Amino acid sequence: MTLKGILFDIDDTIFDYTGSERQRVLRHLADEGLLDRFGTPEHALERWRTIMEEEYARFLAGELAFEEQQLRRVVRFLDEVGVVPDDPAAWFARYAAGREAWWAPFPDAAPVLKELSERFVLGVVSNSALDHQMRKLRAIGLVDHFGEAIVCSQEHGCAKPDPTIFLAGCARLGLEPYETAYVGDKYDVDAIGARDAGLTAFWLDRNKSARPPEDGIRVIHSLTELLDVTSRL
């Protein structure tokens, strides 16, 4: 097998989504005078993340538009503490307006992508909207590694783990699936999805969960490990 290209997930793979979201949510709730309503910061974060995942799943399933899931998240989240927002869109806009200040790549992302780009063509396959992810990649200084090879589920029409979105990423690189690797942090959505689409699948398990992988899934605990592993493929 000769590996020629690598596709990446974005959130919690090259971009520290969880860390940046935590900081912004807590600051926003404090600014809105709502943080104490949730009892503890950890409870507020847990409810925000749970509601986000539920509504985002509806977006990925095609039940909601990208902006609709944002508004439903606000309404449901604030309802838990008895708050009815006059304008959910304005509330979310205030949250979103400050979050770029907290956006950051993982420390290993930029140096690894730079080195890998000397040996492979690189791209992105993400379960999101293209405008949103492009803004994110520009803000964290990684967009130039991927050129036009960025495929997002909203524009593609279906989400990972559907094999067609992985194949669309391969097509953007001008490669066949067997020539392409995929790196992502979600075991079922990213690793199994990529493997079943015929790509070389890497599960980025930064938390070292020790979950035993199925056949065809390669486990790494940092992006730095890719440098050595891909040199042998």
Beta fraction = 5-15%
Compute the separation of the termini in Å.
7 Å
Q: Compute the CA-based radius of gyration.
A: 18 Å
Low-confidence stretches: none
Shape: elongated
Helical segment count: 10
The biggest beta sheet, please? Answer: 6 strands, parallel
Order of adjacent strands in the largest pleated sheet: 3-2-1-4-5-6
Structural class: alpha/beta
Question: Helix share of residues?
Answer: 40-55%
Q: What is the averaged pLDDT score?
A: 95
- Could you state the oligomeric state of the chains shown? single chain
What is the number of strand segments? 6
List SSEs in N-to-C order: EHHHHHEHEHHEHEEH
Q: Could you explain the architecture of this structure?
A:
- This protein has ten helices and six strands, in the order E-H-H-H-H-H-E-H-E-H-H-E-H-E-E-H.
- The longest helix has 20 residues, at 41-60.
- It is of the alpha/beta class and 233 residues long.
- The protein has a six-stranded parallel β-sheet with strand order 3-2-1-4-5-6.
- The protein starts with a strand and ends with a helix.
- The model has no long low-confidence stretch (mean pLDDT 95).
- Helix 1 (17-31) crosses helix 4 (88-99) and helix 2 (41-60) packs antiparallel against helix 3.
- It is elongated and about 60 Å long.
- Helices cover 48% and strands 12% of the residues.
